[in-house]
Amino acid sequence: MAKVDFKVPAVEEYLKTPELQPGAMAKSAPFKAAPRHQEALGFPGELVEDWERRAVAKLADLLKKYRSLRVHLDACVKCGSCADKCQYFLGTGDPKNMPVARQDLLRSIYRRHFTLAGKLFPRLVGARDLDPSVLEEWYGYFHQCSQCRRCSVFCPYGIDTAEISMAAREILDEIGIGQKYCNEILGKVHTLGNNLGLPAPALANTLEGLEEDVKEDTGADVRFPLDVQGAEVLLIAPSADFFAEPHIDGLIGYAKVFHQAGVSWTLSSYASEAANFAMFIGNYEQMRKVALRIRKAAIDLKVKRIIVGECGHAWRVAYSFWNTLAGPFDFLDPRYPVPQHIIEFTHDLIERGAIKLDKEANDHMRVTFHDSCNVARATRMGARPGGQFVLPREVIKASCNHFFDMAPETIGEKTFCCGGGGGLLTDELLELRVKGALPRMQALREVHKEHGVTHMAAICAICKSQFSKVLPYYEFPMETIVSVHQLVSNAIQLGKNS
Amino acid sequence: MTAAVALQDREVAVDEEGYLVNLSDWNEDVAKTMAADDSIALTDNHWEVINFLREYYAEYQVAPAIRVLTKAIGKKLGPEKGNSKYLYELFPYGPAKQACRYAGLPKPTGCI
User: Fold this and answer.
1) What kind of fold does domain A35-184 have according to CATH?
2) Closest approach of chain B CAs to the CA of A458, in angstroms?
3) Distance between CA atoms of B67 and B89, rounded to whole angstroms?
4) What dihedral do alpha carbons B48, B50, B53, B57 form, nearest 10°?
5) pLDDT band at A497 (very low <50, low <70, confident <90, very high)
6) For A213-260, how does the pLDDT look when each residue is reduced to its tens digit (9 = 90+)?
7) For chain A, which terminal residue's Cβ has fewer other Cβ atoms within 10 angstroms, N or C?
8) Which residues of chain B lie closer than 8 angstroms to A243, CB-CB?
9) A33 touching chain B per CB within 8 A
10) Contact A244/B65, CB-based, under 8 Å?
11) What ipTM was estimated for this complex?
12) How many Cβ pairs closer than 8 A exist between chain A and B?
């Protein structure tokens, strides 16, 4: 754990609404993208001269394209329901991290330029002019929103804060102010196919190593196929699954499941990334370009199905947007869901008795489940509403004997973000990430005390990396966080289906 | 935005996160100076990690997966050291990022 130059919030018995600390996070901002990161995506390299005009024109363009954005900007009545629902407000006490206040940073500019009252009597209706200080405020605070949409669950009008944050980031990119973390990564996806910048030979080498490891551990010849034409399934995993821990244990789990199910599968070196950071920056063209790589890989490899690995926002993009971004997927086998989540795939095999799990293999763990924000609030799994909450839990419960849920107001559709989503998983935002994790840490502490919970499983690469990093600040070991398919991997009986 | 690491005889440019701007600027002094700035004195075991990272990068143009690294270190220093816990003891800010920085590799990016 690195040295701390901020105060880690105290975890108390109950989650309290913090005392207001105006300006507490005013200095928090991620590194800005260099001109080369910006230009690779077609954005201006640096702040353009006529930025004010172009920012307003971009907002006009977005309002025209997305009628929802206009509704979200018009509808707020300042009721305050959202105020204490954001993990970043709860963790930092900065009033601008109340979702309503963060939205108002954009809403005030919208009112000035797009409403009659704001044009005539700006001060009466909270309208203001764009100036450089507004841009700084936007950049700082719209990068203190993880676009998790917890606030939207509590908003009586269903205002989607994420959409407002995405719009603000899109406007900033348009005038030459980009975020280094997201934009550098998107450039790597366009050139190398994944967020990590992992070239094909490195990926092949990593996968070969995993085959050796699994052979050594289990004696079974579990394969990790790459670029195999004619495989039944193309697996699209987050590239963190090839690199980080505990992600890679989840990847091993997927491979064992495919092996035991006897379903041929492949990874693609061209589309070796499930994540689509273009969603975080609100840019449709970029999102489409990233999604089209997956379509191309599926066609080139002549697969019949696409399955998505444990990656939260990837599942949102796949489930909600792929069809219009990169569809139609009429070349895939219509008898299977398009796309399908690895949890759905494994869950189906368990239900049919097609794989056998020995729960005792995980008896050293007492497990809880962190619902990832994008899976929870933007997608579904299986055929029934709420399947995105039920199926992962059923897979966990089939893999281990000791499962305990955290407090109901912190899971399911009301789940808290891990604190690192939406393009915030970068080291310079560590203070924000640690503080934003407070509500989840509080809920985890509770089940740890009450039920002796030792591990928290998740199905999102960002959640896993974020928790590995922040758990030690709250005196939990970093190994507390595990992949759901890591539990499956421990429990699955290879070569023994009957 | 660039900053610099001051060596005895020259300065080398690093980015805002402390990674070398030009990878060819690296030599052992760079690693030692960066580590000293973090109050870490590099031991032989640190060097095993740094050297492996550099060899792997030379071959694959990317940092190795944590598991590849732990396996290689386990082979060199003994199985009890082939785990990420040990690597975190050597590099408290994380083997992927801190060790790559000392080794003169670019920062690994993504959901890690």
Assistant:
1) Fumarate Reductase Iron-sulfur Protein; Chain B, domain 2 (1.10.1060)
2) 14
3) 16
4) -130
5) low
6) 999 999 999 999 999 999 999 999 999 999 999 999 999 999 999 999
7) C
8) 65-66, 96, 108, 110, 112
9) no
10) yes
11) 0.95
12) 89
